[in-house]
Amino acid sequence: MQFLENYSLRALNTFGIEARARFFTAAANLGELMSALEYASAKNMGLLVLGGGSNILLLGNPDLVVLKNNLQGIEILDESEKLIRLRVGGGVVWHDLVLYAVAKGWGGIENLSLIPGTVGAAPIQNIGAYGTEIKDVFESLEAVNIRTGDTRLFSHADCRFGYRDSIFKREEKGRWMITSVILQLSKSGEVNTSYGDIREVLRSMGVAEPGVADVSRAVIQIRRSKLPDPAEIGNAGSFFKNPEVPEAFFLDLKERFPAIPGYPVGSGAVKIPAGWLIESDGWKGYREGNVGVHSRQALVLVNYGGATGDEVRILASRIQESVEQKYGIKLHPEVNYI
User: Fold this and answer.
1) Fold (topology level) of 4-69
2) How far apart are CA 123 and CA 120, in angstroms?
């Protein structure tokens, strides 16, 4: 196990931001994880865990020990006629897990196809897309406290999932490395095609009775048509959360801006697409120097090459201020600033 000094993280964050870790290593098993914790303690330094680097914005050079989660493995715990339970290593690439499940005909995560990142990072963000969130199939996870080395089991309730949110983004932020996740998938063949353009794309594919593989292919097609590939242009996918506002506030907005879309989410709240707010405020396709807003998807901020994390942060702040001034809505980042 190597500890590399002044290590470039450019290839380890999908924004492609150049930043250097004071020390860097990777853990492929629990023994290596414990060695990394001991190393950080001996250096009297904090430790930052990286998954796929797809939901972070590096604002400087981390004066930390940066640890890449490489814990692998997909294990069947048990199954019945209708359900199957899997334990998945925290370092498994999320989309690889989706493809594995789809190939087996197991349903529940096909709508989450092509989301970047790792399995260990998925519960932190409560990743979601096209009417599905990981909390819908989540059972529990195991994590190691990066300060004490203690292992803890987190139940579904313990994680306190919210919209693109969990306890790991609040009270427990930065305290745990998720080593494995237990998911419960369906063998029934039922699929969710009610959200977004899935039904339209399936019709264009000539699919009348879709299965999990069909839905996965449709989602992949939609995401590739709307979202830029980080391998081609640096980005972290959707930068902002879709805001939820009280119904009365939304109805007032609707009178002033008749085209504004909104979707009831219960408890008298309405979700408004952040991308629509940003685009209608004139930011879509905007570019200033090395940073900008993607020309096809206003929700995606991009690094055209050579941008710093602070340049991205400043652009995000300008968009937030502009949208709030026009609509009275404060946008909140999905991306974690580090």
Assistant:
1) 3.30.43
2) 7
